[in-house]
Design goal:
The protein has about 130 residues and is an all-beta fold. It contains no helices and 12 strands. The strands form 3 sheets. It has a 5-stranded antiparallel β-sheet with strand order 6-3-8-1-12, with no helix packed on it. A hairpin with a 2-residue loop joins strand 10 and strand 11. It is globular. The protein starts with a strand and ends with a strand.
Length: about 130
Amino acid sequence: SIEATGNQVVLADGSAKIAYEMPESAKSVRIDVLTSSGGLVKTLSGDTSFGVHQMAWDGTDTSGAAVKPGTYQIKVSADSGYATTTVIPVSRTSGVVTGIETVGTDTMLNIGALQVKLSDVLAIRN
């Protein structure tokens, strides 16, 4: 299982793991789950404290209906609570590596249909 910088999650078996890092605390954190074409699927609230956070998305849209398995984009944004301060969270992609291949000069790890550059990997877990 790896964790890497990235803005995509894989929905499988009715769940997807969302991870992000807060460089400092914020007043609020908003996580938009989007289709590959950028359409809004669901908005979630996240942990506002400093550090790395993980949460599960249950695979439902804003009306509570289950959406199709596949790859979705996430957009994480934070409100510092101050007009002069900007907090920019870093979204992370995670999952079980199902393959490895070379694309051009990049070594890519496959997480199902999702590809992650080896150089973007932040953690490897058993």
